[in-house]
Design brief:
single chain, alpha+beta, two-stranded antiparallel sheet, 4 helices, about 35% strand, globular
Amino acid sequence: MRKTLSILILLLIISCTQREYKTIDFGQFEITVPENWNKYEAKGIDSYVGGIITETNDTLDFDFGMYSGDLSRSDFPMVYDSLGLAELTEKELELLPKTKHLIVDSITGDIDFKEYLQYQFEYDSIDCFQAKIITPRNKGFGGTGIYIDSLTGTKRNFDKIKFGFYGFYLKEQVQAEFLKALKTLKFKKYCE
């Protein structure tokens, strides 16, 4: 009897802590996210932009268009001289001590810059596309997200429709939920 009661209490606790999810429809695509994340829309100039606000007020932004950027292409090494340090934001300066970085007198010399790159990435299949999943090498420092080079078009850049969806300086739990959500992306008009 005592064992059965313990199991019932444990099941009740587990069921109460499970997260609820919802699907947000952005027209061009859908994504399944935690119930308390909310859609926001923005006005883009040359592409469709918008995003999601998490329960911790993190902003996850997407860019759907010809000029959507690949975050991993701006993977600058975390090697700083005095000028480089001066260009960091307040948030970056606050997070910097918890990262693998190098502060030098001069950027010249024998430095293995690859050792200090900011991002890592892997390829995965999302809906019917090959996507680049990008995460920071240092937890919480930089962007986390996805980049798809071409939803439509050819290898020539002038007729491609690209997709990027990123969040910056995410805490570990939000990053994990965001990466999980990205794997649920459905591009209904493009994958039929």
